[in-house]
Design brief:
alpha/beta; Rossmann fold; Guanylate Kinase phosphate binding domain; five-stranded parallel β-sheet; GMP kinase activity
Length: 214
């Protein structure tokens, strides 16, 4: 089967276990790349103080959200997260494409698969991993000083994943990447020093734009 011709602008996904610095990498990229945007997702939850419709989320009534799902207006959605619905509106991503922007998202493997099904020509998939178990534990502990049992399980899972870094047939066990292997991603990077990782991701994006004629 022929691979789909890669198109531009791109839908860039960054996946990795909790605590690897994905959000920090994306924030740094957005601050220095005028061609890059982060799309706004939709939710049925009530806005919190200071949140603005269209900036923080698209706040929708449940009936409106469900109707959008039925019409295929979402690239991906979670029907029940803490009692609310969340999702990525297709029209939001297409709006940014029409304005000439590449879009970037921190999303788990399930979301990546759904994005790829919807936009196979647009997607560019990056995987970011921590340098080692100790550094990941430090980051998770800093985020949650009383590391719960779930956190310890996640540490064990990512350690097994990292032990198989060069095994293309290994299938991830970490919840954020479960069911995928290293070969499912276009680029795999280790986030040791944030500034270096940001520079490397920026270089990778620049090279991919050149390949796609941007």
């Amino acid at each position: 089967m022929l691979k789909p011709v890669k198109e531009r602008p791109m839908l860039i996904t960054i996946t990795g276990p909790s605590g690897t610095g994905k959000s920090a990498v994306i924030s740094a990229l957005l601050s220095q790349d005028p061609k890059l945007r982060r799309f706004v997702t939709a939710t049925t939850r009530t806005p919190r103080p200071g949140e603005e419709h269209g900036r923080d989320y698209y706040f929708m009534e449940r009936a409106e959200f469900e109707a959008g799902v039925a019409k295929g207006e979402f690239l991906e959605h979670n029907p029940n997260y803490n009692g609310n619905m969340y999702g990525t509106p297709k029209w939001e991503v297409e709006r940014l494409f029409d304005e000439g922007f590449d879009v970037i998202s921190d999303i788990n493997a399930i979301g990546v698969r759904l994005f790829e099904q919807a936009m196979p020509q647009r997607i560019f998939k990056l995987l970011i991993l921590p340098p080692n178990r100790e550094r990941l534990e430090q980051r998770l502990t800093k985020r949650n000083p009383e590391l719960a049992d779930e956190g310890r399980v996640r540490l064990q899972q990512i350690e097994a994943d990292m032990d198989n870094l060069h095994n293309p047939s290994y299938v991830f066990t970490n919840p954020d990447m479960v069911g995928t292997s290293y070969g499912d991603y276009d680029v795999v990077l280790v986030n040791d020093v944030l500034e270096h990782t940001v520079a490397e991701v920026a270089k990778v994006i620049t090279n991919e734009r050149a390949k796609r004629g941007q």
